[in-house]
Design goal:
This protein is an alpha/beta fold and about 325 residues long. The protein is built from 10 helices and 9 strands. The strands form 2 sheets. Strands 1-9-8-2-5-3-4 form a 7-stranded mixed beta sheet, with helices on both faces. Helix 3 packs across helix 4 and helix 4 crosses helix 6. About 40% of the residues are buried. About 5% of the residues have low confidence.
Length: about 325
């Protein structure tokens, strides 16, 4: 693999208050979490093919043992793929659980393995778009989505391009410390999802920042734009960030290969005429881009999230 790494300067400052020092978690109340972390570390030593096999089994168990998430997934796939037969929809639901089970196993790989071990089975496409965007000196957003390979492919992508990430902090402070430290092993920082000032600062530093908008965050700062033909609450923050910073917005996706062991990571050309000044048009464009990528490998998307939870009419019955 001879793809060139895209460098840029970074400051490790952060405006959120997190405790990342492990010595703060030596009290017995953290011991059960440490046991879980130790198990993840041990499982991460296993070969990648075995990881995928075990992950499929984890997903199969979750399919039967977590009926609430299975129901959400069934509703989402029924709404988004009405052209599929009932049997095809059921198969896609099950395969989605399998894929997300593999994603759970890959978290351990992302946190505890050297990413260099997976470079031989990873191809990063479209780095020239990152080069061109950063050459303008105003930073760039890697517009991501919640694909099941997110944790591992995020680390693998950052082996080829220096980048920061916006993350939702984990509710468990110790797990959050492990996750954040893992994501900051390479050059870059993990910003809290609420730290928009930090995001703008990194863009001013001409950084590439991973940023995802494909979940339902409620009505605040949202418009209802179609996603797979269904009106979905879609935040308008991306447009405001791009307008304020002048950054380019590059769609970013990543998938496990089918039929062979490995990963393909894609940086796409920047969105055109973005922001347009029309929040609904901008949100519609973003949803169209994410939908296009999801359709490549629909089983690898996080369908367990209640994407259509907020309805345009508050009196309208919910889907779930």
């Amino acid at each position: 693999m001879n793809q060139q790494r895209v460098p840029c300067n970074v400051s490790k400052g952060r405006s959120t208050n997190r405790e990342l020092r492990y010595r703060r978690y030596l009290h017995p109340r953290w011991w059960s979490t440490w046991l879980g972390i130790a198990l993840m570390w041990l499982l991460a030593r296993l070969p990648l093919r075995l990881q995928w096999w075990l992950g499929t089994g984890v997903g199969e168990l979750a399919y039967w043992l977590i009926p609430k998430r299975r129901h959400i997934t069934e509703v989402n796939i029924g709404l988004c793929f009405p052209e599929l037969s009932a049997a095809e929809q059921r198969a896609l639901v099950r395969h989605s659980f399998h894929s997300n089970g593999i994603g759970i196993m890959e978290i351990g790989l992302a946190w505890f393995r050297d990413p260099a071990a997976f470079q031989g089975v990873t191809t990063v496409h479209g780095l020239e778009h990152v080069h061109a965007a950063l050459a303008e000196g105003k930073g760039a957003l890697a517009l991501g989505g919640h694909y099941s390979s997110l944790d591992l492919c995020g680390i693998l992508a950052r082996c080829r391009v220096d980048a920061d990430v916006m993350q939702r902090d984990h509710n468990n402070p110790l797990l959050n410390a492990v996750m954040t430290r893992a994501r900051e092993r390479q050059d870059g920082i993990a910003l809290s999802a609420k730290d928009l000032r930090g995001l703008l600062r990194q863009l001013r530093n001409n950084r590439l920042v991973w940023y995802a908008t494909d979940q339902d965050y409620g009505r605040k700062d949202a418009v209802f734009a179609p996603f797979f033909g269904v009106p979905a609450a879609s935040i308008t923050t991306t447009s405001r960030i791009a307008a304020r910073s002048g950054c380019k917005v590059l769609p970013f996706s990543h998938f496990r290969r089918q039929g062979s062991l490995g990963y393909d990571i894609y940086f796409h050309p920047p969105l055109e005429n973005f922001p347009s000044g029309d929040d609904l048009a901008d949100a519609t464009l973003i949803n169209q881009v994410i939908e296009r990528e999801v359709r490549r490998h629909p089983e690898q998307y996080l369908w367990m999230h209640r994407r259509f939870k907020t309805r345009p009419d508050p009196q309208e019955p919910g889907f779930y």
